[in-house]
Amino acid sequence: MFSTPFLDIPALASATGTVQLPGSKSISNRVLLLAALAGGTTTVHDLLDSDDTRVMIDALRALGCGVERLSADSLRIEGLDGTLKQPTADLFLGNAGTAMRPLTAALALLGGDFELSGVPRMHERPIGDLVDALTQLGCRIDYLGNPGFPPLRIHPSDIATLSLDAPIRVRGDVSSQFLTALLLALPLAAGASGKAVVIDVVGELISKPYIEITLNLLARFGIAVQRDGWERFTIHAGCRYRSPGEIHVEADASSASYFIALGALAAGAPGQALRIEGVGAGSIQGDIRFVEAARQMGARVDSGANWLQVSRDAWPLRAIDLDANHIPDAAMTLAVMALFADGPSTLRNIASWRVKETDRIDAMAHELRKLGATVETSPDSICVHPLAPAGWRAAAIHTYDDHRIAMCFSLAAFNPAGLPVRILDPKCVAKTFPDYFETLFSVVEAPHIPVICIDGPTASGKGTLAVEVAHELGYHYLDSGSLYRVTGMAMRRQGLTPEPAHEAQIAALAEGLPLQFVKGRVLLDGEDVSDLIRTEAAGMDASRVSTLPAVRRALLALQKRFRQLPGLVADGRDMGTVIFPDAPLKVFLTASAAQRAERRHKQLISKGISTTLDSLRADLEARDARDSSRSVAPLLPAQDARRLDNSALSIEQSIDQVLNWWQDTQPFKPA
Ligand SMILES: Nc1ncnc2c1ncn2[C@@H]1O[C@H](COP(=O)(O)OP(=O)(O)O)[C@@H](O)[C@H]1O
Ligand SMILES: Nc1ccn([C@@H]2O[C@H](COP(=O)(O)OP(=O)(O)O)[C@@H](O)[C@H]2O)c(=O)n1
Fold first, then answer.
1. Is there a domain that residue 621 lies in?
2. What digits encode the pLDDT tens for the residues 194-241?
3. Residues 75 and 127 grouped into a single domain
4. How many domains does the chain have?
5. What is the mean pLDDT of residues 594-599?
6. Ligand 1 center–CA 464 separation, angstroms
7. 160/193 same-domain check
8. 459 CB within 6 A, ligand 1
9. 518 and 655: one domain?
10. Is the domain of 72 the same as that of 217?
């Protein structure tokens, strides 16, 4: 996951390969609650691991439910079977509507004393219609803040005294989650009372496909619900949740929408499609119908029961005018696709966008306008005009702590103007798809992946600076010196010396180095050699092997392979002159020899390596001389390099300077 303040996505061109999507949020949280309400043990496979599922799991644990993690995406749940082990708890539910609403209903019926709260935005998301429905039954719920909104206090009630004779009325036109919450929880009442429970929906029910997911999963847990149109739902008398034992969660169809759009936008080679695994034509999720909308706009989509394959067909995309009530979440993706269409596209009947993680109609309009688009909105619709190539602007997209805004705006990186897109607070995707950007980067290609080169003499602070700059930007890091150091070590282990006579053998070793970089450690054939290669002797060997032209050639391709999305910071001697001559920012870092010797001295002493200042200074000057005078790739500033003498600068000042220079090369205005 990218936890950086922003993530710059360079202009993207094509997409191919396969993505495996994480589990559906809607299914995961429903299954978790049903497994907790049921008797017996349920093993849940392919569960989504995200913020919203984590708050649900934490809440269930707080209620005394046994939850055992079997792997990153599977859990074993020991159901409560109608009896709370912890009848009092304060539950923090983040911004997860799929936890807040159903838990409110379930806890109101289970009897106990609970406080339910969330992040500030959760306290602005309505819940009054659900509380009203539960109050009709005889449940006791207080608002602790604004009436109609969380936080809530739930008081104990006796399920035997609930008034179940008249139908329970609930509004369906604000959020379908109110009805889902009642459907998931009221089997408790129907079971305990031996009476059928009838729910009547008041107003036009929105987001019906989410109700279908609820009914489908209830059936998997042994609860049959009779549905009369979309107005009346009857839960049978005496019903009981029964664990299915094992249950698999489908991949998230809403998350699939970004990759379906990607396939439609990316100019892949003929016959090359993007494959999406884990969700397909057999999905029970309503958002799978995004496929129809994408086809309407010109995507070519083939499908099997649990896979999709997508490629670009019509180009530009065809404008669309769609009642998107059935796919409210995935429809946000259409609003970004609309930028690439042949006319204005309108999405209608999406008033629910206004009460989601943020007011999504206003937020989408505001951010689309930043890209240069003309956008019109109404209380329940949005109309997006396409952008001509010259109309695109580079924008820093504000994401409103809304995962879907972050994900759908990443698609703007396919703009024909070749502009990057800046996504602010990219970690908001953790709500449903923590590895979204990594997954995106694994299937797209960018014509120009940015590189920041930091070259300079030994101990000038290149590594320190490069690691921090990479960290701030979420970029990869190449410590090119370590490649020479490892080559030197491999050479010694083969009984060779850094002489021209052994050049071909050392180059052959360098070519096939079984090298891995894992979490900042350097592994040679699986052995962690990070510390071994840091000694001054290893540095001296590195300096010597690096003068051999065949060794330098052998390491060329390996170094270039580090240039991966979203970008790279490379530190060394010839990053800017030889390896990445087209890098948009090259820094030549220097400090006085005395300063550098002192820094290295301190560094080695702190690692417990004993040495003297004089010998270090002599070593360092010898290395400087060899690096600068060798015939191949000598240590020289690139012509377009910016020089930074950090003798009098702190590490932080150097980092700020380089980040400011980087910002100057970018088309974004500071956020
Ligand atoms: N601007 C700076 N001011 C003071 N010390 C620094 C500065 N930059 C780096 N250092 C310190 O100097 C030492 C050598 O830095 P390093 O990044 O290993 O250099 P290089 O990669 O150029 O050989 C480290 O201990 C580091 O903390
Ligand atoms: N791009 C590079 C990086 C390192 N090197 C050589 O490899 C040696 C070790 O690199 P390093 O970056 O780990 O060295 P320090 O700067 O940390 O001393 C240097 O002394 C250089 O001679 C090189 O020739 N070209």
1. no
2. 899 999 999 989 888 889 999 999 999 999 999 999 999 999 998 999
3. yes
4. 4
5. 92
6. 6
7. yes
8. yes
9. no
10. yes
Query: What is the predicted ipTM?
Result: 0.95
Q: Whose CA is nearest to atom 10 of ligand 2?
A: 481
Dist. CA 179–CA 120, nearest whole Å: 24
Residue range 415-439: mean pLDDT, rounded: 96
Identify whether 342 is a catalytic site residue.
Answer: no
Give the count of beta carbons closer than 10 Å to the beta carbon of residue 69. 12
Q: Which domain holds residue 523?
A: 479-564
Q: Specify the pTM.
A: 0.89
| Distance, CA of 524 to CA of 503 (rounded, Å) | 20
Closest ligand 1 atom, residue 458 Cα: 23
Question: Which tokens hold the place of 137?
Answer: 């039954």
Q: How does strand 527-528 pair with strand 521-524?
A: antiparallel
Protein residue whose Cα sits closest to atom 16 of ligand 1? 461
pLDDT digits (tens, 9 = 90+) for 571-588: 999 999 999 999 999 999
Same domain, 269 and 121: no
What's the CATH code of the domain at 582?
A: 3.40.50.300
Pocket of ligand 1 contains residue 464 by CB under 6 Å: yes
Q: What one-character DSSP code corresponds to residue 77?
A: E
Q: Partners of 44 in the beta sheet?
A: 75, 247
18-44 per-position pLDDT tens digit: 999 999 999 999 999 999 999 999 999
> Cα separation of 45 and 246, whole Å?
8
Looking at the fold, whether 456 and 390 belong to one and the same domain comes out as no
Catalytic residue among 329, 455, 541, 571: 329
Going by alpha carbons, the residue nearest to atom 13 of ligand 2 is: 481
Dihedral angle computed from the Cα positions of residues 375, 376, 377 and 381, in that order, rounded to the nearest 10 degrees: -90
* pLDDT, average across residues 297-308: 95
Residue finishing a domain among 564, 579, 613: 564
Last residue of a domain, one of 445, 466, 499: 445
